[in-house]
Amino acid sequence: MERRRFLALAGAAGLTAAATAATAGPASAAAYPFYDSGVPAEAHTKLGELAPYGVTAFAFTPSGGWAVVTQDGRYFARGIPDACFAELGALAKAGRRVHCLAFPPEGGDRWVITTDKGVSSRGLPAACLQRVQSSYAAGQQVVDVAFPPAGGDRWVVTTTGGFHAKGVDDECYQMMRNLTEGGRKVTRVAFPKAGGWAVVAQDEYHARGIPDACFTRMGTLAGGGWQVHTVAFAPGGGWVLSTRGKAPALPADRVRQVENAVGGATVWQRMSAYRTPGVTVAVVVGNKIAWSTGYGRLEAGGAAAAHPESAFQAASISKAVAALGVLRLAQTGGPALSADVRPHLGWTLPSRDCVTSTAVPTIDRLLAHRAGVIGRGSTSPADACSGFASGGGGFAGYGPDADVPTLLQVMNGEGNSPRIELTTTPGAEYHYSGAGFVLLQRMLEQRTGLPLADYMQREVFAPLGMTTSSYALAPAFELAAGHTATGAVIPGRRNRYPESAAAGLYTSVLDLCRLVSWLNRAWTASGDLAGPLTRASVRTLLSEGAQPGMGRGLFLADAGTDGFSYTHDGANYGFRSVFKGYPKLGAGYAVLANGSDAALVTEIAAAIRKVYGWP
Q1: Torsion, CA 604, CA 184, CA 226, CA 195, rounded to 10
Q2: Which of 246, 355, 570, 611 has the most CB atoms in a 10 Å sphere around its CB?
Q3: What string of DSSP letters covers 340-361?
Q4: Alpha-carbon span 325 to 320, nearest angstrom
């Protein structure tokens, strides 16, 4: 597997500090290679003497002391607390194997030693010690404890079963999570005093802001097939790397394969090229979420990393999800899909003189963009019924200084979009139409007496466990900010869309993949599953309707084959999105991005399909 550095979104390597001294090693007599730089001469000498026995721990104290321990119980230390040194001796005598030795940045008599049979410590943050102890109580050995240089209640505890972190850099946490999603176990985390971090996970490693020479030597170890076992940073800027064996042979890491196959480059390089600060991805295999990851930041220059739980604007994916609400209403006593939508609007739908008066804009035709309601940008000239400008169908949204109109005002053309009307004869032509979904939203709200956000929460999101999804204008989730094509944050971070069913959904890739999993299972089930729709309604949703190649609010492909799929993408100001499901394969994916170039989500989706062999 290729080892790579974690690239900054600017495209340059995000590891800028320089080593403070020439790098030495590996020692000629060592069975296992090691490297160091900027450390006391005695530390270098002792590391060389002990490296042949397999170093399990090397640590620096905040005041410049240090200690080294091997897997067979040898140890040497200089300038560490007396009680810690005594405990090392006792543990060695008792035959304990030391996994980790660490010193909190506050200094003094504060330290922790984890072993194959328990922990010894003094002066740890209470929550950290509790986590270490509870891990052992649960039968998991603690292989590493690390402390960011800011001190206080900030720490990482890595165990044989996973990791726990508190108060660490959000991007560092993002990377630890992403590595474990790929089936790897985090084995070491280290923090230089000047900032930055390094994360090692068996045959993978990533870093930000560590000395260039250190990162280069990590690549040297990995290039020789060695696993990076020890990473330690001295308070003065020095560092130590060591190994005690070859990297393990592990199953293919699908996450890394996708990351490295985006547009012929890595996901970070493509994010940089498209000036997109943040992306989240989730993949469904066997109708379960197989993995989910986040890359970059929710806002350019911000501290919050993009996580699979983060909410993004889903843009026109809003239509696909709103279609479930429409079918739910029909299923529970509302108007049938074949019904004329006009009697359910509480409003008169205007019609151009040239539109045939006998044709009916049915709910089903609205769901398929064939109801004669042409979207924004396609209605000029105002008295024509053919020859319209290409494109259209979307809404611009409302920025921070604009008053947001009511839905009725949008319908009457009192916002920033033309009034909604019958422009062509219903059923005669296909015109992608956000305005048609505004009429469906109005129908839902009129029939239920609820705002769309409340109706969808009760009838769709709650039953499916979609906990980070909402049609509210400003939901109370941690939200991604949108960005322009230059990578700048858009004014107000997010435009507002009262045309909620057409463009106003906030959601996460996890929620979209929960939806994909449920739709796949409901499509193939022999009976009804618990959820918002019956099997018959799901079959209607995902079967071709009034428009060839479309179900209800979803685009279909390869019907009648194992590769049969449904999908929708989206483009709001500052956001791009796509999701797709394969009912017969039990598979699917979702990609959300806070940038303005749709090519990025398209490339990530293509990488997923390539790695898994999906059409």
Answers
A1: 80
A2: 570
A3: BSGGGSSS---B-TTS-TT---
A4: 10
Do 428 and 385 contact (CB within 8 A), yes or no?
no
Residues 6+ apart with CB under 8 A from 560: none
Write out the two tokens for 533: 């729709």
List, edge to edge, every strand of the sheet that includes 155-159.
142-146, 155-159, 162-166
For residue 503, what is the DSSP state?
A: H
What's the pLDDT tens digit per position in 139-162? Answer: 999 999 999 999 999 999 999 999
pTM of the predicted protein model? 0.92
Helices and strands: H and E segment counts in the chain: 17, 23
| DSSP result, 198-239 | EEEETTEEEEES--HHHHHHHHHHHHTTB---EEEE-TTS-E
First-last CA distance in the chain: 26
Please say if the pLDDT value at position 131 is more than 90: yes
pLDDT (tens digit per residue) in 62-76: 999 999 999 999 999
Chain centroid, CA 217 distance in Å: 30
The number of angstroms, rounded, from the C-alpha of 312 to the middle of its chain's C-alpha atoms is 10
Maximum CA extent, the chain: 96
